[in-house]
Amino acid sequence: MAEIIGGLTASHVPAIGAAIDNGKTLEPYWQPVFAGFEFAKQYVSDLKPDVLILVYNDHASAFSLELIPTFALGCAAEFQPADEGWGPRPVPKVIGEPELAAHLAQALILEEFDLTIVNQMDVDHGLTVPLSLVFGQPARWPVKVIPLAVNVVQYPPPLGRRCLNLGRAIGRAVASYPLDLKVMIWGTGGMSHQLQGLRAGLINREFDLRFMDLLENDPDAAAAISHVDYLRESGSEGIELVMWLVMRGALAPKVREVRRFYHVPASSTAVGHLILENAGP
Amino acid sequence: MALKPELMREPQSYDDIPGTTVFDAERSRQGYHLNQFCMSLMKAENRAAFRADEAGYLKMWPMTEAQRQAVLKRNWNGLIALGGNIYFLAKLFSTDGLSFQHVAALMTGASQEAYAKMMLEGGRSPDGNRYTWERQTRG
What we know:
The structure holds two protein chains of two kinds.
Chain A: E1 3-10, H1 14-21, H2 31-35, H3 38-47, E2 51-56, E3 71-74, E4 78-79, E5 94-95, H4 98-110, E6 116-118, H5 125-135, E7 144-150, H6 160-175, E8 182-188, H7 205-217, H8 219-223, H9 227-234, H10 242-250, E9 254-266, E10 269-280
Parallel strand pairs in A: 1-8, 2-7, 2-8, 3-6
Antiparallel strand pairs in A: 1-10, 3-7, 4-5, 9-10
Chain B: H1 25-30, H2 32-40, H3 44-52, H4 54-59, H5 65-72, H6 76-81, H7 86-95, H8 100-108, H9 112-120, H10 132-138
Helix pairs in contact in B: 2-7, 8-9
């Protein structure tokens, strides 16, 4: 039987990818960010997941305004790094897990989560930066990845409650898969940031730390945060945090925090990172 | 008499957040061709064609003249007001070799140094920046 063996969250700032790709990780500005993920590198390497379900958002790379799926499940055998306007990141192609993805698509749609099934999709920094933070610069990624893209570009993204419930359904769907696979789920994006307008640069440390607490200990309360509260309190792009709720829903009702990291800034963003283990019903 | 499109906007719960334009369905409709132009810059050959003749390249996209002028002038706040979305505009400023942080600073009116310093010191506080009336009372 497949099993969700843990969850991880990480912000996914493009400048973090550029710092890795351009060999700047030891520069004073970036060193604290990468030091914050050293624990995760060792932890995930020891855990050896077979598959990641990686919840992220596309930033107008695979999806333009022609097509805006609220939830899009990557069912392909592989995904190429996207050219986001400055050339594709020099990272390995992402290898999918089409059999498990097909199982998830079927199980989730029958649970009333009407996902868009994607068989051809490039993946942008939203997906590849968290991989780089945890796996560094390998010749090939050491794990298969099922991308789950959530629309947070055009308002409104799915509600926090919907994301939490989707995560819970993912947990059930993975548990009903007959093959033995160790599955980890990652929620990416956030934390507080605003990239546009006169209020650009907004960071709300208090909101972010409280969000981490609620996510761990009272996910239903975290899921009840309204969209306008995310916009007001965590900045117009901070609303990406709904994706962390998908990760949380797939874990057990009780979780144990094995790692927390919070750092300001990476470019205009508060970097947040958690590793959670299942602790019980 | 028909109202101008911008006057027809339905009031939204997020309209009172200062300095913030939420890219909702209405703004997406308004900025459709502008954003799809930006999207075209994801291809290297299109970036080269745009650089070679910006005004000519823009004519291929059925956007408004105001949107074209805002692109040519790189008026980032203007582009946001005309329906541009920051992740689409990123294709344009990446073509120019600019970073998200660089353009964020331009949009706030701060110098690059002042914006970078603000971020290193923990970013812009939400205090006084949650509601438009707070900003007004702060002058």
